[in-house]
Amino acid sequence: MSTTPMSGVLEASFDGVGSSSVPILSTKAQKRWRLAYNTLYSTRAWLSLGKLLLNKKFLRAASYTAIDVEPEHFPSIDRSSLNVLVKENNTVQLLQFGGVEGVVTKLETNRENGIKGDAIDIASRHNIFGSNSYRKPPAKTFDVVVDIIVEAFKDPIILILLVCAALSLAFGVHKNGLTGCSDGGSIFVAVFLVIVLSALSNFWPKKEFGKLSQANDNIQVNVTRNGQHKQISIFDVVVGDVVLLKAGDQVPADGLFLDGPSLQVDESTITADSDPVKVDHSNPFLVSGTKVVDGDARMLVTSVGKNTDWGQIMSKISCDFDEKTPLQVKLKNHTLFIGKVGVLVAFLVLVILLIRYFTGNMYHDDGSREFIGGKTNIHEVFNAVVGILATPVAIAAAAIPEGLLLAVKLTFAYSTMRMLANQILVRKLSAYEAMGSVTVICTDKSGILTMNHMKVTEVWLGQNYIEESASSCSPGVLELLHQAVGLNETQHPSRSLSELTEKAIHEWGVKEMCMNIEELRKSCDILQTEAFNSEKKRSGVLIKKKVDETIHVHHKGAPEVILAMCEQYQDATGNIFVISNRVREKLRQVIQRTAINGLQCIAFAHKQMSQGDYDGKSPPKLEEDRLIFLGLVVLQNPSRQAVIDCQRAGVNVKMITGDDTSTAEVAATECGIIEENQGIITGEVVDGAVFRNWTDEERMEKVDKICVMTRASPFHKLLMVKYLKLKGHVVAVTGHSTSDAVAFRAADVGLSMGIQSTDMVKESSDVVIQDNDFVSVVKVLKWGRGIYINIQTFTQFQLTVSIASLVIDCVTAITASEPPTINIVAAISAGKVPYATLQLLWVKLIVGTLAALALTIEQPTEEVMQKQPISHGNPFITNIMWRDMLTQALYQIAILLIIQFQGESIFKVNSKVKDTLIFNTFVLFQIFTKFNAKKFERNVFKGIQRKKLFWGIIGIIIVLQVAMVELLKTFADTERLSWGQWGICFGIAAISWLIGWFVE
């Protein structure tokens, strides 16, 4: 084995597989190292070497002795036959290998100790049998950074400025020596800063999407290597590995059963057959991607990666975070259209400027006419023509709203990261857009009821709301609450919500009110109970305290019923007051509010009875009048509330389940999908077979009215989705079984419930709800709408800026009287476009990056769920947006052109201060345009604590603008302004905010 330090190949695995501490290089890395070494003195050598050296794992690997891997191992085994062994369940081929033991021997492994697992062994198995991966490996950080920088150089403004900087530098040095490089050098520095900031803003979304992709794929597998049990990534599994399987595990690769008791696997991910398959010595074949449903076993890996059917399937349906969503396509088309308009305007400006120049219609400051016929110096003519060419090109470039696509990337990256933190993995970015338009959600019972529970959200004692339960009550009141909650408990029919209510109130009593149920029951004797009655809507209990033998009655039930039985109320301190009309009305309003919001309310009342009413033999009747109102609790059923939120947002929820009608009706009633009033069900319930037998006309007529479909098969669900879409609905489907994958593909959005879902179902879905809670579906719905609105907000902002910039630059360029010079090339616009180089870059940074961060990285508010779904037929840029954009743009154009042509006389300033006023006012316009663009939330001060980023960016822009005007006057080509002039700029810009209010 060769050990030469350079000619040998450094075997390294950057993933650190194997038990050896010596890192090895992969095959791809070997080729990269050979390229860098063999071309060390060529032009590309330094780039290749530098790219490798930036990899920390390569540096670590390079410190070890170089080794060569023999080109061929395992000569006694036919790899092609091995790959089809499990695919075809080929028992004949297995016998030719010598049975399972023969395969173990040929793969140079051990059924007890596994493979050696050192660096050479792992590398050999990777090279010969392939790796257990089916997706394109994530790009290295260096590659991502290079790609982003290259992409930044494609920006027209950047390219123009670089060309202008080069020309300015060349002419400046030629004319003035080294002192003449200041203009060009300042442009190079400014461009570098903008490229770095743009690269950082693009790098963050790519980095976040990379993390999400890794989180989506990472599965840990237990293997035996060199006699030791260890846990590795599924992608590190190699042929010959001995894998330890248990119930719930995914089979990581194709393999053979070695030993284990009663192993059963679910092969529905591959065969669509949901019946478990028994795997033993008579049927030893284990297929990649299947699920272990029962038993433990050890398996021998025979094929990995794309050599398995599962790997080939996954490579085709793999998660792609770089997909182009419909919204991105729309925005790209808008960008191209505005760019074409900018090019057309720039061409007209070019024609006009050339005509003016060659006909002698430009003047020097001294009033002399500029005419080409009087030129004898070709250098001056070239200088003037280059200046003329630079101006319209700069106008065209400045008009392109290149920040739109960046805004979409930032929004998707931020939203996907936040969703993952909430146990929601968005696998396809287009799901965000579709969820914003969803009008119907078809869900199975488990997607709603798996985490069905209620909880106490509000507590009222007497007429007052209390925040801290136990600490807010006197000991006497606390004792009464314990009795009311802990002793007044009864069993109720399963068709009602009472079981959930009782459980929630009991949990609240224990956790929040410090109730000890055992001590409570020992301290009191229960004399009589009155079970909950649907007519009376209350329950009661009569108790006798053992300490003083006092008798108390407690009633619990519907608040309007309990309140009518009371004449007094008791507050948290224990004081008792008469219930006045004002107090009674206040409590009624609380009860009505909870009912309107879909919440449940339970009230408590009590009374101490006279000893004379109890003779010790027959218990007295529970008194029902002149009670003391103790308080009430408000309960929320999260699943029910989620359904109600959907319905208020214009989204209809339909339950499609395989259960029978009675079971489905109970579940749908509990969740608010249907309502039961005196035994009458509101909302149509249909059997799946009946729905299938209907004609097309009947389905089209009744599909909107159906709330629940029972005894539904996957075909019935697919049929429901099909006809809902034919009716014009945007449909989302939740599910967890393999059969739901078909409905996912037919629906606009597929949401898999992650806890129960198979991997095939997760891969077929657009969104994975990892906590299995229907409430999370509502979160996706809200984020989908919020993202759409955020991108609309930024689009309105940027198009307003583009329209204003295009018109202002065009008019000032055409009307400029000063002839172009090389300084115009350096400054782009000295006498034409009223912004210098750094000013132009600063405006670009505000529009392209800072505004994108301020307007798009914001969590959606509850207000978005009060609107109707976003219709697919509606244009992205609405008429209201056009109205607001044109109003703001026209105001900005009018003000800035007035300052351009009359500013010197109006403000009694020189041209330098006038140009600074234009630049300053234009930047401040953009600040207030951000407020105007947020028309969906006019009160920008509302919820200021969650808008820290927005206000932080506004503050940064103002601080940097002050610095540019007051401190960087030479570099930014500005002039200092007085306090009065700053006030004028702010006042003029603030008027645009008021205009936005009046236009609404």
Describe the structure.
The chain is an alpha+beta fold and 1000 residues long. The protein folds into 5 domains: 1-68, no CATH class; 71-137 and 220-322, Calcium-transporting ATPase, cytoplasmic transduction domain A; 326-407 and 785-999, Calcium-transporting ATPase, transmembrane domain (Up-down Bundle); 424-450 and 642-770, HAD superfamily/HAD-like (Rossmann fold); 455-636, 3-Layer(aba) Sandwich (Calcium-transporting ATPase, cytoplasmic domain N). The chain has 37 helices and 30 strands. Helix 13 runs antiparallel to helix 14, helix 30 (774-815) runs antiparallel to helix 34 and helix 34 (911-933) packs antiparallel against helix 35. The chain starts with 26 loop residues before the first helix and ends with a helix. Residues 1-28, 30-71, 363-367, 370-376, 491-497 and 819-835 have low confidence and may be disordered. This is Calcium-transporting ATPase 12, plasma membrane-type. It comes from Camellia lanceoleosa.
Radius of gyration: 37 Å
Q: What is the number of beta strands?
A: 30
> Mind summarizing the main beta sheet?
9 strands, mixed
- Given this structure, which CATH class of the largest domain is correct? Mainly Alpha
Shape: globular
Which fold name corresponds to the CATH topology of the largest domain?
Answer: Calcium-transporting ATPase, transmembrane domain
Protein name: Calcium-transporting ATPase 12, plasma membrane-type
Organism: Camellia lanceoleosa
Salient structural properties:
1000 residues, alpha+beta, Calcium-transporting ATPase, cytoplasmic transduction domain A, Calcium-transporting ATPase, transmembrane domain, 5 domains, nine-stranded mixed β-sheet, eight-stranded mixed β-sheet, 15% strand, disordered N terminus
